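Much of our argument rests on the idea that a fold can be written as discrete symbols. Part of our work consisted of pairing the sequence of a single chain with a tokenised description of its backbone. No coordinates are needed to read the tokens, only the vocabulary itself. The record that follows shows the chain in one-letter code together with its fold in token form.
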Amino acid sequence: MLFGAAYYAEYQPYERLEEDIRLMVRAGVNCVRVGESTWGTWEPRDGHFEFDWMQRILDALHQANIKVILGTPTYAIPAWLHRKHPEIMAQGPHGHQVRYGARQNMDLSHPAYRFYCERAIRAIVGHFANHPAIIGYQIDNETGVRPLYNLGVFQSFVDYLKDKYGSVDRLNEVWGLTYWSHRLGDWADLWTPDDNTNPGYDLDWRRFQSSLTTDFLRWQANIVRELKRPDQFITHCFVGSHGTGYRDRYDVSQLLDIPADNPYHSTQDGLALPAADHAAWMLPEWSKEWGVYALYLRGDLARSGKGTNYLVTEVNAMAVGGHDTNFPAYDGQWRLAAYAFISRGANAISYWHWHTLHYGTENYWGGILNHDLGPNRCYRELSRLGNELKQHGDLLTDLEVGADVAFLYSEDSRYALEFQPCLKVPNSASPDRASYQRIFNTFYRSFFDARAQISVVHPPQDWERYPTLVAPALYVADDALLERLVHYADDGGHLVITFRTGYVDQYCRARWEKAPGPLRRAVGATYNEFSNLVLPLGLRAAEGAPDLPAEARAEAWADGLELEGATALAYYDHPHFGRFPAITTHSFGRGRVTYVGTLPNPALGKTLASWVLRQSGIVPLGEGLPESVRCTTARATDGKQLWFWSNWSFSPQTVPNLPIGGTELFTQARLRTGQALEMEPWGVRIVVAG
């Protein structure tokens, strides 16, 4: 298990390398990430590289037995490169020229930018590849944050369309360009995307932008692979949760030896169970997710791209977000969050960053050490964690994560629902550009609240082995993918689908068969109208269906479902919408399809998910325990089964009746089946079965 932080000795206000390393060793740090942010230090002048500053750092770390992940510094260009080659800067829509002064502000595909990138990568990796401290390389950093509107990029987009569709006649057909007289007579007629209104165009534009990111990272990976030692790995850090808007997690993960993620999360009351609503105000403005479920979602998404273990390269130290978002964790929360990620397959826990910066835009993004650079509450708790991982890290590495429910993720649907959102921002007339994320997260939280263990999967992957598959808002899908869902249910799986699933084809054209299109026979219901909901609607259980909690509500959306063999589970309690089922289920082949025509509130979502788990024969872990106590399982490489018990509250809790016997990892106490397990506030206990 790797444990440490991003470390920037070059940012320190005075010489303290020896002191930093002393504190790291005391804290159990065994790995740091270096070098990815300082191209201007590596190459202070055009073609003049300096290595002595990093040589000194690497030598000192190696002497202390601290491993190193070396980053390629290509995401933040030096000022001299911008001055000499302003043409490499990114452009936004309407000719807006992105200016120098931030980061990730260049055209990734520009030949001049690529030339200087390659020269720097070859110089740095070539110089240090044989250094014994370096175990791997991070290529670039959180790539894919902006669409590129440069003229050369647009011309490449035209070439992309030519290769994909072959002729303008085919493009006219699939994009429906007869509408508004947009038909093309020649490829030269294609307009730039600045004011585009066509959804088919927009979907291909976003796919193309993601392909630019994939191509750039593939190009970097190939260069590094040529230079590195065979025992060194290549990684790349994804932005936590749904990630950047112009990068496909699945595609990029295939380029890497092991993916990495930066899963920043809420803290303080934002990690309490039951969830505290006011915690939403404790987030930085760019974060839309809070709660314990979001922390597990980020771990499951991190694992999803390659279907393997992953590295956490950045996560909360003292504070996250900036000068107005200062919410350091409560005692125990740093450790609790780390073990949550480990329980979901993390092979590294690394914090951003070792020390809090004294200058620059991120000078209040708190590191392990604050501005005074001395040990503090965060350092002490992470030292406990680091020394635990030093003792038990081998057992906790390369875990095979337990999961009974799979969630099918669709980048295409995310792109399309950002362009044409189906939902409105709550309490607003504005469209919710995060409609896909909101629907996906709502259903993930529902199953998390029902104590399911979850894996996130992508269409090319193998998801047929899971007893339950949830496909939230699978808006964009070709017939082959929808037929695969039908076969999944026919072969015995429990398929849960939601409103908007299968509504448009792979070209973003609304299907001309009655919804839900190819899924109709498996769903056993259909609809030809739907409505946004301004206010939540109450629900009533259908006759013979399980009871609903009084606080169950349907939110944001209602499909006008008509039964065609399915059984209604719940109806809207409303003088108009009451004629329509809100949720249906249908026995199909050897399996079942449950259709949810609305966005459930937490009470409805948990009730529905619990019912689905029972129908699928899945026994939730920790059912009947206090809400703050959760359990997940994983299998170690030696075959041992690990049970992770966690308490997300200030109150001590007790697991009164352990379902398994074994050894508690941290105390080495022997536990019998049926024995009680005591949980400290914000505490974690790991039971090794056997």
Summary: DSSP finds 17 helices and 31 strands in the chain.
